[in-house]
Design a protein that fits this description.
This protein has 2 helices and 4 strands; from the N terminus they run E-H-E-E-H-E. The protein has a single domain, classed as Alpha-Beta Plaits. Strands 2-3-1-4 form a 4-stranded antiparallel β-sheet. Helices cover about 40% and strands about 30% of the residues.
Length: about 70
């Protein structure tokens, strides 16, 4: 299942790359792509998305404290 999230207040492409790398390391994520220009995260997972959303939000907050994820 592919899910697309909006990430508001993402300030730099370097942070987008860091977020993408960390999300890809999650066991339940098959693939991830963070697009700095469109401010979107594409996540491919076979798990229930509601179970991994808190982990994704936590990763984003650690790297970019002002960002906000919207589904």
């Amino acid at each position: 299942m592919i899910k697309i999230l909006r990430i508001n207040n993402l300030d730099c492409a370097n942070c987008a790359t860091k977020i993408e790398t960390k999300i890809k390391k999650l066991k339940s994520v098959n693939d991830c792509s963070v697009n700095y220009l469109t401010q979107k995260i594409m996540i491919d997972t076979n798990e229930d998305f509601s179970l991994i959303l808190p982990e994704i939000e936590n990763i984003c907050k650690k790297i970019e404290p002002d960002c906000k994820i919207t589904v």
